[in-house]
Amino acid sequence: MLRGMFCRIAVIGMLAAFLAGSAAAQSGNPPAVQAVNVWARATPQGAKTGAAYMTLVNQGQTDDRLVGVATPVAGEAQIHSMSLENGVMMMRPVPGIDVKAGATAMLKPGGYHVMLMDLKQPLVEGQSFPITLTFEKAGKVQVTAKIGGIGAMDSGLPTPAPPKP
């Protein structure tokens, strides 16, 4: 009898969690963290790597962290950073990028960026492609990267102001 009661409690708990998650997903509220000015540089024919950049804007009340990226245009996408060490530019993968509550985080040339490896096709100026960003708290956020020129240094769009508290 005790076992049956525990099973019922477990089933009720799982159902409540499922319904709460479904209600949040259907609320239509945008995620607390959004990506704006998402762009990438065009790549030359035959290039196997590229990069995407953006501004992450956290309009929520809690800190969050970008922990994963994916896109169908590349075999693999990773979060990378570039830094100058002893006069040499170094690029390496990082486990994530913190986005403080009420703040922005920039992914830009020479700093944090989304590294696209094993490109399945060239990135062509004027086209676009989808990227899925995964945050610790906001979950998955779908964005579209617009492709600029090969030597572009920014999206050509104005940088957004930080969110108002």
Sequence-ordered SSE layout with sheet pairings:
Layout: H1 2-26, E1 33-41, E2 49-58, E3 64-70, E4 74-85, E5 88-93, E6 97-99, E7 104-107, E8 113-119, E9 128-135, E10 139-148
Parallel strand pairs: 1-10
Antiparallel strand pairs: 1-2, 2-7, 2-8, 3-6, 3-9, 4-5, 4-8, 9-10
Compact overview of the structure:
With 165 residues, the chain is of the alpha+beta class.
Domain count, please report it.
2
CATH architectural type of the largest domain: Sandwich
Reported by name, the CATH topology of the largest domain is: Immunoglobulin-like
Number of helices: 1
Question: Roughly what is the average pLDDT, rounded to an integer?
Answer: 83
What structural class is derived from the secondary structure elements? alpha+beta
pLDDT < 50 stretches: 5-27
The percent range for strand residues is over 45%
Termini, distance in Å? 53 Å
Biggest sheet overview: 10 strands, mixed
> What is the helix/strand order?
HEEEEEEEEEE
